[in-house]
Amino acid sequence: MDIFRLIQDIRKHLNLSFDEVDRWFDKNKATLNHRPSNGGWTIQQILEHVYLTNFYLLILIEKGSKKAMRNYLDLDLNLEIKKYSFNKKRFEKVGEYGAFEWIRPEHMEPKGELNLNEIRSLISQQYHQCLNYLDLMKNGEGLLCKTTMTVNGLGKINVYEYIYFLSLHAQRHVTQMKNNELETIKN
């Protein structure tokens, strides 16, 4: 496994996902506040949900990265890199809106307590946090800690895969926001 290529690919995916998310903050108020006919979230609520989900995922990513860096002292990183195979296909559904039932915890539901500028700033900070973790674990150390991810039965995933999951989650909601905007245009 070329771990450097994996880190580069995750960095690229993060960049594309977060750039796409950021563009939604520039939409007009009518688009941002349109409630879809299915009773779902407005785009502003979706953006807040992305921030909240990132917040909680980043807690796990931070803990995982610290543990991975500690494990570096006791585990054979080169052996872990040789054994590792990234199963991208296993993760693809996470980025597809509506691909499977996703029951999110209540603490990840938007409450309308933050304004759009605050959400945008926080999501930008989260993007930079992800990049910092990739820089910290630049030699493959992220393979040295696995944490269980229950969403879509992913099971034990390493820190890099958690960061990729975070990026895919944002991508999933970009599709949802596009659907909302299309409905706005039709009405």
UniProtKB/TrEMBL annotation:
Domain DinB-like per the UniProt entry, residue ranges: 29-177
Top-level taxon of origin: Bacteria
Pfam families: DinB_2
SUPFAM superfamilies: DinB/YfiT-like putative metalloenzymes
Name the UniProt record assigns to this protein: DinB superfamily protein
Organism: Chryseobacterium polytrichastri
Higher taxonomy: Bacteria, Pseudomonadati, Bacteroidota, Flavobacteriia, Flavobacteriales
